[in-house]
Design goal:
five-stranded antiparallel beta sheet; 6 helices; homotetramer; Immunoglobulin-like; 2 domains
Chain lengths: ~325, ~325, ~325, ~325
């Protein structure tokens, strides 16, 4: 890690060891957790296919990429089958004239392949002879199985349970009661219903141990409220910076000069997926704004019958003296 | 909120802050939770597609609307493809006569499109030439992928775990032991089996704080039984209005004049879906009947071998003096 | 209930009220829980479709019935479409000769319908004219959507998480330590792996209350072991009949003459379905054998490398004096 | 079991009875749990189909076997239908010449079957007559339902939640603090994210009871850390061999001469499957290396922005004196 390690830490704060991260900072590069909640880890030492869950990969890739793969696969497999039909001989495909040019013959074999793969089978071109007929039968099976897989992937993609939660880009050090609090805000942007939401906030810092060696230390940051019944509106996570907090006494300079990271993990029951969903994010000290307050992000509507939640205000805050 | 805020509340009652709702009543319009259990919140500030989970939307819309969307999509996409075939030239569709009227030609192109999209491919009309053949190959792919998506949506619609639970429309203030109780009734109307059912009842009221400012206060209402092994029959939730209850001392007039809401959340394990399902509802003070008692809704059958649960009696009560 | 209600019950035993069953025996007919774990309840007062989860019904019906429904649906819908094609006029179906008999014409329309519904579309018969073409396009859509639904139902049927657990048909009163125990045995017959299995045993009896009125009383029966890590072999549930047990002092005559029921509910984590599965059963007093012992149902194999579980011995016991 | 049973065991160690395994070693052959986590049990006494969950079997078999079954099924069912078409008479299949040889006629019937089963339906061969038409309609239905099932199986196969976790092949007795510890290492090789991982380690040994009879004894081995927030890197399970440990005082010879097994069960929440996944393994005493230490398996990358996890080092250890 590039910056200095933390030289002071509240001695009353108790560290935790159950984060799954090790204690030796020299083994770590960069942040622990990426902004999107994934671990900042590269896996090596196995082959690509041993390391990859291709199903997960197909499920989480962007839609245009997923469609691109399907279209490319379709174009390629038809090319392969067309070449095979052509190699066997187009005279076995009734409906392709023997006096046509080779390009047109190949083109017709290509579209015959597409008609077989998709099981359209118009029949103006049809297979003849054992080899071509068997190949066509194989292609039709291949086509149907491919679409069986595509059906599964489409369903997997849109039925994959996920936590529709957005976080404020910044964490704030805000006035809180008589002191200060570390605040992060979240909301659910979609028409789903998150119940029994629980949050866990962990602080990771590199500090010097008693021998002056840098070690990774992790602290569970207690929250004013770590559970709510329902995430219908916004939820501001508040860690009160009490005398027991590892952040007690930290100044704006400390956040600017030290290396540290606040990891937020949220679990909730989504009553449309009917399952528990989880999401994480992290705030490096660079992303913590010292002396600021979130602005209210919901209000009554005009006829006073509904409450309006303004999702674009999730990271809106104003500077305050603290 | 239109009505007066609650001026008195049992000082022995302890409020809770973990409901996920804020404390400032002026930010709220109308009830907190709708009768169907959804939050009475409008989301703004993101585009429609950022705010919508289209999969959830397709899953929860009524069946006729869902079928309507499928049929419209089918009619429209065939129109688009028919127009493209027509634009390329119907002379590339063998089987469409060149001397036919333009309308008939377009109509035949339209039905050719339908036969390709569904992969029926009778073949009495068949594509010719690169452009038309490629378009037909594309349409067949589009068709199969569309049906892959439709398959997923159908499956998603009927396999979506949901709590088949009906609630009494009204909550009652009934005689209970030596005093009174707030009672709400529920039952499972379907041939599913709900196990380990848990209920949580929360009271939300607008009351004046020590400075006379209205604030939202929430109270967890303890239940005589908040858990049952199996929801085979009806379950009457009973909140005993003891001296510790925030409703202690409330009269019929108080319920009529004040603004408040009782929120019920139920979770259970459905052993056919093999998952935990959740459902909520709420009762505004308007929906609370002061002085009434639910009537029994199940009885032995004639040959004494079965118990009959009469679901239409879920909200049947008789007035009583209390 | 036909038999006498229980007249004596161990006064040290504490009853529970959270079973979900009511206390008034005159409202109940027959046993509480059927042998297959379903509640012995009939639901009334709503229409059939309000009471039925058709998806659950399709999932839990026997395979031959499910296939029968599919085949009947296929035969019927083809009949409907064939009638429509016939009504519009078979002259719009190219390939059906106008001089053929009406039965043959209808038969050909019927098979044309089948070829369209399944999207085979050989093309030796093909639609002509707007009405017939539109009907064929509609039928192809209907066909594909029907198979989309069938695909979902097939998948739903075989992916439905269920607890593959068999119970002994009888419960036994066996010697246990210095006294007696109520014993029931279970095992998992399939090649799945049930972890973290938990059992709950509840006794339901009709007893006389202090005023001599019969009331339903339920007792949680504590087990020697109510949890095991893994249900790899057989698991014998043992309720020690101690002085605190409601069954303390019961004789063979008591079980024969009284009315009562032991309800067993088991939950476990199935690591192939990756979900919690639940199953129940019940033993009426008639099904309790007084003075018997289960025989061992597993043993080492010949070459001492595996353990053999003999599933057909699940209910094998021998009589013993107690 | 072949080897001697354990003659000594730490008398301070407390055994557990909730493993699901019995106490009589003579009923057991070989190890309790296989290396892949399955129980070392053979089930008998029911028919094959009563013992098998064919869905689980199809889901867990290797891919090549699964594809082999599909291809064989396709080849066979076409053979069956071709035979039926042939039996009815190929003169009912328009497009098959009556003067062709019987082999060619059968071959054409075979490919006609394939075209019907996959609903390609080119139409150069088409059914005629009631029997053949009805058979073709039946085959098309059979084909579509088969592909419906295949679609479900494909989806089931790749969407099956599973714990992507690899374990070190060996467990080690390593130096730990001032004494020794039993250590096993695990990591997640794939691009999934395991949260809230919990491990439970159980020791099973055959020991002599007070009467000198061998009995199976199980001990829960307490871990230094039995829970971590996130399995992003490697996780070394450490059982400190304290004075309370059943392994206290064990020497290299004891592990070599005695019969015992360490069973590891891990549960975690996979946030891509959004469900809890479970995995087990076991280490017989033969697989425990006395006096060795795992080598670090992760390090900072070159530009210090990421941490690299080297999965091939999962079982890398060096010998140490202890």
């Amino acid at each position: 890690m590039a910056k200095d390690s933390v030289k002071k830490v509240n001695s009353k704060a108790e560290s935790v060891t159950t984060t799954g991260f090790g204690t030796n900072p020299s083994s770590y590069g960069g942040r622990f957790i990426n902004k999107d909640g994934s671990a900042n880890v590269i896996k090596r030492g196995l082959t690509f296919f041993e390391r990859i869950s291709w199903y997960h990969t197909m499920l989480t890739m962007p839609g245009w990429k997923f469609l691109g793969i399907i279209v490319s696969f379709y174009a390629s497999i038809n090319f392969v089958f067309a070449s095979l039909y052509y190699a066997i001989g187009v005279e076995n495909l009734d409906g392709i004239g023997s006096i046509e040019s080779k390009w047109i013959q190949f083109g017709k074999a290509y579209f015959f392949s597409a008609q077989t793969f998709t099981t359209v089978g118009y029949g103006h071109i049809s297979p003849n002879g054992i080899a071509t007929s068997a190949l066509a039968a194989t292609e039709a099976l291949t086509g149907l199985l491919s679409f069986a897989i595509a059906t599964g992937l489409f369903y997997g993609r849109f039925s994959k349970p996920q936590a529709f939660v957005i976080f404020s880009h910044n964490a704030l050090i805000s006035p809180y009661k008589d002191g200060r609090g570390l605040m992060m805000r979240m909301a659910s942007p979609k028409n789903t219903n998150l119940m029994d939401a629980e949050a866990r906030v962990t602080l990771g810092m590199v500090i010097k141990d008693e021998h002056g060696n840098p070690v990774n230390k992790f602290y569970q940051l207690p929250l004013e409220m770590s559970y709510i019944n329902s995430l219908s509106l916004s939820w501001t996570l508040v860690h009160p910076i009490t005398e027991e907090s590892p952040l007690y006494g930290f100044t704006a300079e400390d956040f600017a000069n030290m290396e540290g990271e606040v990891i937020v993990a949220v679990k909730a029951f989504d009553d449309l997926f009917s399952t528990t969903v989880a999401i994480s994010t992290s705030y490096t000290f660079d992303e913590i704004v010292y002396g600021a307050k979130f602005e209210m992000m919901y209000a009554e509507n005009n006829d006073q019958t509904k409450t309006i939640l303004e999702l674009d205000k999730i990271n809106t805050f104003k500077r305050v003296e603290i």
